Amino acid sequence: MSRLNSAVRSVIRSRWVQAAALSSGVAEEFASAYVVPAESDAIAVARKLQKQGLEISLAYLPTSDDESESPGRILETLEHLGDLARGAELSVKPSSLGLRADRVAAAAVLDGLCQAADDAGALITLEMQGADEYQPTLDLWQRARLDHPLLGITLPADIRRAERDVAKAAGAGAGARVRLCVGSYPVPPSMGYRRERDKQLALVRCLRVAMESGAYAMLASHDPTLIAIAQDLARRNAIPRDGFEFQMFYGVRPLEQRRLADIGFRSRTYVPFGRGWFEYLTTRVAARPRTAFSYLRAVADKS
Question: What are residue 141's DSSP bridge partners?
Fold first, then answer.
């Protein structure tokens, strides 16, 4: 099955399928369930979600041509959020800060974003990208957090050292905001786990360390078992329902997101938006076999 899924992902990313999906309107049709192209649409979605009792995390999606404009776009979004900004999270990719080119400049850009977020009552969380950026991203977070203690970090459990880094992050100060996920970027065998079960077990260990050490854990997962384990760990460690949170993608398990919010848990929806929506869409569709087959069938039917 893994070989079949790999083949499907390759087909979805082929030039012919991408061109056909765009020209036929299939891409826009599927995108509406997972991503919003324009900032104005993202803010409208955020307002609707907040009315449903959900918290929001907005993530700007640049194209390869305008990635350097990301910090400016993020600041504009923060300003345009207005009253929605308080408590909202902005997810920021290190590459959008220019981390690969100049770490000192990236730190200055991040400081500016964090200061603007602090002033608006919003939150910034650094995403984690490829394995090559793992340590530089951690270093960037550790330095910036000295001035901005609410700055969050994402630690993917498929990297073997993540459990140790969760403990270090928690030790950096009470309430350190740590987003925990399985991980979606390729990891060299020497650095990470290969089997899905090993990744899931590693995520549970990371979650336990975070909750036992006083960090503010943000579980980024749609897995029912992991969600149940998180609730159990919170009970065992006397963590109130608003003392950690669940994070899920926009368009994925929306009823579960609302259910968690309705029973008193913090439930945050990750809303991606921006010009890079199509690349994001192909990545999301390729990661979900059933959706991938439906996507390919729709492209074939309309081509």
Answer: none
